[in-house]
Specification:
This protein has about 325 residues and is an alpha/beta fold. About 30% of the residues lie in helices and about 20% in strands. It is built from 11 helices and 12 strands. A hairpin with a 2-residue loop joins strand 9 and strand 10. Helix 3 packs across helix 4, helix 4 packs across helix 6 and helix 6 packs parallel to helix 7. The protein is globular, with a radius of gyration of 21 Å. The protein starts with 5 loop residues before the first strand and ends in a 6-residue tail after the last strand.
């Protein structure tokens, strides 16, 4: 994976629970190259947010990495000390978390928080850091940045707080920017504005951007390549056009079919995928999607599926696909 700013290599992670080990991530691999925007998509519970926490080494006390690595600019984040991870966060990899309502300290002004976020920049004075923060707020589309610097989070709308969270992530010019469900908590108008902002940022951002979402429209608007996750595994990867127009894994095809944008005319009900995610304290011996799949065979339930390389840009974890 030489040349990748971010690479996840056969990562497996489990959580200790009263019912046993929950195998939240299973042999996950992906990469993001300089100047590239990748998407990670899947329904709730598929492991997207767990993967985000692993990318920055915030996996929790009850979590255990059983195999694999997460490398940012070549350094394995999971093998670093906590002090080394703190130096890496913000400077090399930064995250915009999904809830803009809880992203900031409610009793400290936005300006003070954005200034304090630059604590690694020891060569800058506090006034210089405040100027940098104000300039970044303006960059992400906040009209009166000077006034916003003096505001508390509760004095800002959800869209403004999400823009401020993006500004906070970009202040240290990280090599990798991860946006975890960046539009989930926003209304349709604010969602459109944030998508427009991210689209603008990708034009002049020289690092890699990772968009994590269940919203297929966001993926289509912003990303170059997509990784589809199901039950803690990457079940398909490919270019956006491949995934949207030529999905090969049955789960990917079912997920796209459930997108309301694909419904023509009037419908009495929205399409769904029958069944439910498997219990990851005892994952199936075969394909995790077999019980919900319309083309599953006895082999699918008995043996783990192979990861089939379909082309130079597309691959799927499935017994039934052919190159």
């Amino acid at each position: 994976m030489s040349g990748a700013l971010l690479s996840v290599e056969a990562l497996s992670l489990q959580f200790r629970s009263a019912k046993g080990a929950v195998r939240a991530l299973r042999e996950v691999s992906l990469r993001a190259d300089p100047g590239e925007v990748i998407g990670i998509v899947g329904e709730s519970g598929c492991g997207k947010s767990t993967l985000v926490t692993a990318l920055i080494g915030l996996i929790g006390a009850n979590a255990e990495v059983t195999s694999g690595a997460v490398r940012c600019k070549g350094a394995d984040i999971l093998s670093l000390t906590e002090a080394e991870r703190r130096r890496l966060r913000g400077q090399d990899i930064a995250v915009v978390f999904q809830d803009p309502m809880t992203a900031f300290n409610p009793v400290v002004t936005i300006g003070d928080q954005l200034t304090d976020f630059q604590h690694h920049r020891g060569t800058l004075s506090r006034s210089d850091k405040r100027r940098q923060a104000e300039a970044m707020l303006a960059r992400v589309g906040i009209a009166d940045a000077a006034v916003t610097m003096r505001r508390f989070p509760h004095e800002m709308s959800g869209g403004m707080r999400q823009r401020a969270a993006i500004a906070a992530a970009l202040l240290m010019t990280p090599a990798v920017l991860v946006a975890d469900e960046p539009t989930t908590a926003l209304d349709v108008t604010m969602e459109a504005q944030i998508i427009h902002l991210l689209r603008e940022l990708r034009q002049d951002y020289q690092g890699a951007i990772v968009i994590v979402t269940h919203h297929l429209g966001v993926i289509g608007e912003l990303c170059d390549r997509v990784y589809v996750m199901y039950a803690g595994q990457v079940v398909e990867e490919g270019l956006v056009d491949d995934i949207y127009h030529r999905p090969r894994h049955p789960y990917t095809a079912a997920l796209i079919a459930c997108d309301p944008a694909h419904i023509e005319g009037q419908a009495a009900s929205l399409p769904t995928i029958p069944g439910r995610l498997p219990d990851l304290t005892d994952p199936p011996a075969g394909c995790s999607f077999a019980d919900r799949c319309t083309i599953a065979t006895a082999r699918c339930r008995a043996a783990p599926p192979p990861y089939v390389r379909l082309s130079a840009t597309q691959a799927a974890l499935c017994h039934e696909v052919r190159p």
